Amino acid sequence: MTEETTDRQEAFFAFDDEGDDEQDTGRARRSIAWKPTAVGLLGLVLGLVLAVSAALTWDDSRKLAGYADRSWVISGEYQDMTNDLQTKTYNPIYRGALPADEAVAAQPFDSGLADPRVPEAGEEIVFRGTQTGAREGDFHQEADALLAVEDGTLQVVETDRAGEFGDGITAGTITGKRVGAALLLLAGLGVAAGGVWYARRLYRDGR
To answer: Who is most buried in 53, 60, 133, 156, counting CB within 10 A?
Structure first.
């Protein structure tokens, strides 16, 4: 074997080693890039979830604000379901008792199931829930109903899971919900910003 042939073989294997090194480096860079990308995306997703929760909480406070200090809360047990009045879905039917407050008998009560009539304070009633669903499992077996006077008639204006309305809707309830919404929004922004910052740090450290 001549000296020239040996030099060519050594040059070839040296080139091949350099190619392997470049491939390994490329794979390492891709591996490093995936970590900060995943961290950044996770932070953005969690931040978005918190922001959506904040928006829903704020919207809930907006809907309930008009009933602050002028409503009652009663508990109900699921009885059956009935056709919704506006869609092809169903509403739950609950059984509960009106508040033992003479003010509830000062106007007719509309249960959503029969013609309005003047009730007695503390009377046991059945009423239509506001949720919609397709089957029994879609509804709370125990629920709270928010009652308020609208257009001279006592009505069920909102139903939700038991305990959702506490002892009643007050100005303090609305303030608490709005503070909670603001905290959720700040937390969402913080998580998103923190995720992006940490992702950039991982990327710089891995280079």
So the answer is: 156
